[in-house]
Amino acid sequence: AQREAARIEGLKRAGLFDAWSGSGELGVNYTTGNTRDTGVALGIGLAKDGIQFRHKIGAFVDWQRSNGVLARNRYAADYELNYKFNERLYLYALAGWERNTFAGYTSRFTESGGAGYSLIKRDGLYLDVTAGPVVQQTRYVGGGMDHELSARAAVDFGWRISEDLELTESAAVVLGGQWTSTTALTYALTDTLSSRATFDVIHESEPPLGRRATDTATRLSLVYGF
């Protein structure tokens, strides 16, 4: 009880740049010989869980060149604000940007808001769901731009299988548009350093002509937590 009271008091006193936590991710590959591949994956995630407000910031870069030809080219960043009514129910507002030329667009802006609920919230296991309307503005590689109004739903799941091993899943779907899934298995090497295996799936319901509907990516990376 004393520790919880001290935690709450610390959150009340926290300034704009205080009480943040997060992690940075780095994955690099370089091969020579019959094939010459160079790739880099960079990611950062920040979170600040206050008494009534929760902030989440994420950014990611996934770039790869194979034999002098660009093979992957994805950049993304987003910010989410939660207003908590209690320990489980909250409202959310989300703003995001993404560039993925292999999916057929040079930029996509996403704005969404709605309700969220923590279906499971206990030590070592959590499951959050959110749903609400979404607006997207997409500029395509071949020219042209779309503005769409739809509905969005997302799931955020985490399970600490053991003291050193954690499984996470983050998925989102826009009706009539895109759905994404990121599955990660993270193993703690030290108190701050971990190794991570990630599998990404991106599906476009109506890809541009000549583009495949589904892209997948698998990567291994090191993660530093702070």
Task: Outline the structure in words.
It is a single chain. With 226 residues, the protein is mainly beta. It has 1 helix and 12 strands, in the order αββββββββββββ. The protein has one helix spanning 2-13, and strands at 21-31, 37-49, 53-66, 69-84, 89-100, 105-122, 125-140, 145-160, 165-174, 178-188, 193-204, 214-225. It has a 12-stranded antiparallel beta barrel.
The tally of beta strands, per DSSP, is 12
Contiguous runs where pLDDT drops below 50 for at least 5 residues: none
Tell me the strand percentage band: over 45%
Q: Numbering strands along the chain, what is their spatial order in the largest sheet? A: 1-2-3-4-5-6-7-8-9-10-11-12
Task: Report Rg.
Answer: 19 Å
The percentage helix is under 10%
- Strand and helix order: HEEEEEEEEEEEE
Number of helices: 1
What average pLDDT do the residues reach? 90
Largest sheet: 12 strands, antiparallel, barrel
The 3D shape can be described as globular
Helices and strands: which structural class? mainly beta
C-alpha termini separation: 25 Å
Summary keywords:
226 residues, twelve-stranded antiparallel barrel, mainly beta
